[in-house]
Amino acid sequence: MRLRRSKAGQGDIVDIGSLDPRGEELRRIRGGEIAIIFQEPMKAFSPIHTIGDQIVESILLHRTKDRSEAKRIALETLRDVGMSNPGQRFGEYPHQLSGGMRQRAMIAMALAGRPGLLIADEPTTALDVTVQAQVLRLINGLKEEHGTAVLFITHDLGVIAEMCDEVAVMYLGKVVESTDVDTLFYGAVHPYTQALLASIPSLAGNRDRLETIEGTVPIPVDLPAGCGFFGRCPKARPGVCDAGEVPLYEVKPGHQVRCVLAGSGKEANPR
Questions:
Q1: CA distances (Å), origin 72, targets 16, 55, 60, 155, 218
Q2: CB 94 within 8 Å of CB 48
Q3: Which site among 73, 81, 183, 247 is 20 to 30 Å from 204 CA-CA?
Q4: What is the C-alpha R_g of the chain?
Q5: Going from the N-terminus, what domains does the chain have, and what CATH number goes with each?
Q6: Cβ partners under 8 Å of residue 185, min gap 6
Q7: What is the average pLDDT score of the chain?
Q8: Tens digit of each residue's pLDDT (9 = 90 or more) over 16-58
Q9: DSSP-derived 3-state class of residue 218
Q10: pTM of the predicted model as reported, rounded to 2 decimal places
Q11: Integer angstrom CA distances of residue 38 from 8, 43, 127, 188
């Protein structure tokens, strides 16, 4: 992964994979340039430290060495994410907060370092629908306010439609389709993406049964050659789809698909 700095040394490009995993340079990037909202905050937070102490620790590492200033920033960030009574929550432990409050505290800790990139890993999975909508609006609002780029990881296509500009669909650890969100929903090319979209329930009620994807995901150990979706794909061509590694093809500018059927056109450019 290559990172273009958004703070000190602006304009420099750093190859994160080449850095010492225990070095100071990477420690400055983690939580500073790049922050993450974990899927389950109850497991991500330390159970023996208060919410306030954990947020302050991040601020002391990345923004200021003054503890009083760090506490002021932490309280301000908790208010920014809509935490009720932030002064009280500051001194509470994770188990004393509801699921929605813990997720807000996790977002506050991620944003406290003012990152250029925020990775949101299924941040609403453990929340009820009402709180989920509140958290999504919160992330969108903070993204607009601070100019932070958000990498959203989710299985929920409805969340993708609400949150994303660009989408990468993955199968067996590989990107199988990459495009803008409108093209994904109205012009998907890869059979896996098409199957995912077809399995969404419709309020129109014009289908007797939901569409399903036959078979199961292969065990990712010693995979056969060819497309990983070959064994489940209704359009699979033996001897073609399983003949060798399938590259990404550009079916049109900004739209890449990992499928030999998509790459059969004259204008397709393998990448």
A1: 31, 11, 12, 36, 50
A2: no
A3: 183
A4: 22
A5: 9-164 (3.40.50.300), 167-270 (no CATH)
A6: 161, 197
A7: 84
A8: 888 888 888 888 888 788 888 888 888 889 999 999 999 999 8
A9: coil
A10: 0.79
A11: 26, 9, 13, 29
